[in-house]
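Researcher: Structure for this, please.
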Amino acid sequence: MKLLKHVVRNMDQNVYIYFDENTKEGVIIDPGAQAGSIAKLIEENDIIPKAILLTHGHGDHTSAANELKEKYNIPICAHSWEIPVIADSSINFYMGGGEITVDKVFNDNDEFEFNNCKLKVIHTPGHTQGGVCYYDYKNSVVFSGDTLFYASVGRTDFPNPPQTADMGYPSSDNTEKLLNSIKTKLYVLPDDTVVFPGHGGKSQIGFEKKFNPFVKG
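Model: Predicted structure, token format:
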């Protein structure tokens, strides 16, 4: 597997293109903006996109999704709990055109398979209610969105849709949920798992367990 990264500079948001170097089939993870630049990277490397995978519904991770969906005729995929966030422009900071429609809905522990790669969906609520990480256990790689960063963690003060109260999910201040997600869902992964976050540089699970000042293993 190979990885390309495009950084959307206004938010320093990481867009990942993860693909098989032999077949060139791959996925686009969190296309936050600048669809043209992302498409250029895809075409320069002869990549065949099969899907757009969203770690969560904030606009800095989704605003190029519709344009790329239309260009490549591929589905947008997200966790079922994140659909209310994606649909609510008052809380998701969306900057793209048209409303985003989620074509494939994930739940915890689902797998998305393309070519010879399987990405496990790990539901990690906290930053948002339906935030997920995508874990390639064969290649020891996890895409952590805004759940876990290098020596940091995602914010937990963003508002959530009103209906999330029915899920036992508070309207704000989800710090406990985020830290629990990291401890029970990510820190159980092998220490050598490489972490590719939604912002900033990469890390490893073992490093974060030892040195992350917000949540130690």
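Researcher: Any notable elements?
Model: Residues 2-211 form a domain with the Metallo-beta-lactamase; Chain A fold (CATH 3.60.15.10). The first strand starts at residue 2 and ends at 8.
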